[in-house]
Amino acid sequence: MSIVKRVTKNTLWLTIAEVACKGTGFVIALIVARYLGPENFGNYTTATSFVILFQVLADFGLRPLMVREVARSTKTAEKYLSNFITIKIFLSFITLAAIYVGLWIFKADSNLTILILLAALEMIFLSFSDLIRGLFQAFEKMKFETIVRTATKFLSFTLVVAVILLGLWTKSILAALAISAAFSMVLSLILAKKHFIKIKFAFDKTFLKNSLKQSMLFAVTNIFIAIYFKIDTVMLSKMRTAAEVGYYNTAYELVFAFMFIPGIFSAAVYPALSRYYNEDRQKLQELAAKFIKYYSVTAITLIIFLMLLGAPIIRFFYGAKYEPSILLFQQLTIVLIFVFINYLAGTFLNASNKQHVTTIAAGICAALNIGMNFLLIPQYGASGA
């Protein structure tokens, strides 16, 4: 199959997955936000955002490294996945310990502590699932990625709706999501064993040492990205009210739903770009330049559309009690142009073994975000974030 056909086919599968998952995820967020109200929804999003800041410890950049290397030589698949699953078990315990320390520093109350621990459990299960699904991406068999993600999201929807119909609250919602994440991990394992490789525990000390050195830059980059996207929610929760956090995250989740567009294509072309880096670097540069142009046009068009329809969108989906989210939504749409370009630039640099450039840029952005949050949130609240 030609490279164009492979990318087109994988893009189609990823589009199906993203549309189904983002659509279902949006409905889940909508139902939860309307059910909990601004204050409780603020606590819910504070818990999930807090955990995401620690997710990089569990992931440690292992998936993108495995995808890149296995895409170049599929014979290495069993070695990478078997060793990475083993080391991820240790990383998961380290992550949970770090979250516990973070809770002590954050001085969360007992209710928020339980919410954070439930969100942490969900994150650990999804981290294992994500690593295994990286195998599907490396082999350019995105239909399996689509199967796992779509099935998981629909299970999440079913369980969350059941929780709400039973009249239960935030803890039960997060517990339902943790169960769905466990299902995702198990289904990924089953598909990987059935269609790709034998999965076993392996501990090649030299191999893991070298791999962790290489994945370090991916990990550090992901730390900065997590800080950039989620630290504002955590800081807002300490400086302002839980209700204001709820308003902010209602707007944020709506904007974030559209970030699947650059994510789809970037994930589809990553294996191909990794190969072109070895085989035809001129072609690699030509493709990157062309895609940046397409991404820019798409982002600007989307921003204009969302700015004009921001008010009716918020009122229709969330109701009058989320009226303060309208201005926040319109402000956040501007970020999309930078997110679109960043997705492709990061994919191009990672495929070219230049993760350090991505890391430096992400670090600068994260530092600026923290500094500006300290300056702007006390005075402007959610708009400052």
Structural notes for this entry:
- The protein has 385 residues and is an all-alpha fold.
- The chain has one domain.
- The chain contains 13 helices and no strands.
- It is globular.
- The termini are far apart.
Please describe the topology of this protein.
Blueprint: H1 3-59, H2 62-72, H3 77-106, H4 110-138, H5 142-165, H6 170-195, H7 205-239, H8 242-256, H9 260-279, H10 281-318, H11 325-332, H12 335-351, H13 355-380
Helix pairs in contact: 1-3, 1-4, 1-5, 1-7, 1-8, 1-9, 2-3, 2-4, 2-9, 3-4, 4-5, 4-6, 5-6, 7-13, 8-11, 9-10, 9-12, 10-11, 10-12
Count every helix, treating DSSP H or I runs of 4 or more residues as helices. 13
What is the total number of structural domains?
A: 1
- Terminal CA distance reads 47 Å
For the biggest sheet, the summary is: none
- Report the sheet-strand fraction: under 5%
* Number of E-state strands: 0
* Overall helicity: over 70%
SSE string, helices as H and strands as E:
HHHHHHHHHHHHH
Rounded Rg: 20 Å
Structural class: mainly alpha
